[in-house]
Amino acid sequence: MLSNGHAHWTGDDPKQVYAICVASLAPVVVDHPQSLVVGKGDPATLLCAAQGNPHPAITWLRDGTPVSTSQDDPHSHRMLLPDGSLFILATRMNKKESDAGTYTCLASNTHGSARSTSATITIATLHSQFVVVPVNVSVTSGQHAEMSCVPPRGNPPPTLSWLRNGHTITPNNRVLVRQDGTLIISEVLQTDEGEYVCVATNPAGIRRSAPAILDVIVAPFWVKAPRDVAGVVGGRAELKCRVGGEPPPTVTWRRAGGQVPVGRARVVKGRGLLLEPLTPQDAGVYLCTAANTAATITANATITVLSPPRMVDMPGDVEVEEGQRLFLRCTVEGLPPPLVYWAKEGSQAVLPAGITTTEQVYLSHSEVAKAGAVGGTKAQYEVATAGRSDSGHYVCGGINSAGGVMARVTVHVRPTLPLPPPIIAVPPTNQTLPVGVAATLRCLVESAAGVGVGHQPAVRVSWTHNGHPLTNSPRHHIRADGTLTIKG
What number of helices (H) and strands (E) belong to the chain? Predict the structure, then answer.
């Protein structure tokens, strides 16, 4: 029975043959391209899929002109995908060539052709210069503040947003952005002060205006709040702290849980704090307080004191006998605790981790330890059985973010004294035996090597029969003590 161009099995005969009737079909576009707006140099894909029998071939037109793809020119940046979609690796727009335009997908076979709906590719543009840039504004707390911004020209027209201290501003019942891009802040608060940037965005990219400062008068505010710094022992560390306000606030420094070092700390230009020379004890949290008749504000920053690695435990030159244990150990202190390693001169690789072990140790006698930090790392390198190839110069190194240190030792592996040759103490004797009777031939050997000393191999006993070597077999067996047994 035929249905919808197909034959169906209606009987019970398992040998019945199916028949399929496939109709010839003119092309039909089933997936149409959609218009795109992309940035110059960005990839773009225009979708197109068609059905038909035979399967239709896909070609593309741009503004009515056939589009050349990599099938026509291997160097083309346009590719025709297997499903018929057009992929542009990097969109172009210059005096010689442009990918912008109106595109149409054309599907064809022997029964006709079909066109997709048209889709456009628009190459977005965005100039770099803002028409109007925001400027610094000073307002009294509780008043109204405005910042104007007109974005650069672009296609499509860019959208505007604002950043305050690097964070996107979300409009609310007190902060809004007008259609012309102006930022309006009602009833300005002290927390509104900071650095404002106008951001213009479209598919061609993002443009940021020069920053503008909003100063809220009366209460102190930070122009440059202190930030965490790090310094090396013996060097210097400076915490910057710049404030504004009316009347001008006074600035004081203190240390959380301790005192600012006397004689080595001073307030410098801009009311920052300079410590010089640094010691491990200077590490900690420092607070900058700005106060006037309106308010008091405080910010904190951490000083981290780094100590370059210093070798505190290093072995001298080492001499061991071949076959003995080789053990090297060194300890390096520093802040942060250094990475310590062993390496052999002549090899660019660090000695294997399976042989070298490291651990952090507390050095109670060191200046680093007195600062209350784990300041040392111990590295051990061990060879259970030293060979002559282990002789040479070894380097223990320690590194951290403040510097590095290395120390060198020489290892000499002495060869062991050669052993005398083995002696056959009990040689085999002649025997006369009946056929079928097992035979035992003894060969007892005495040697200083025994079962193996150092790198000297153990004695090995072998047998020959009429000049031919014997090995273990179903009839011949050589015991561990050298005795040969022969089955009857």
Answer: 1, 46
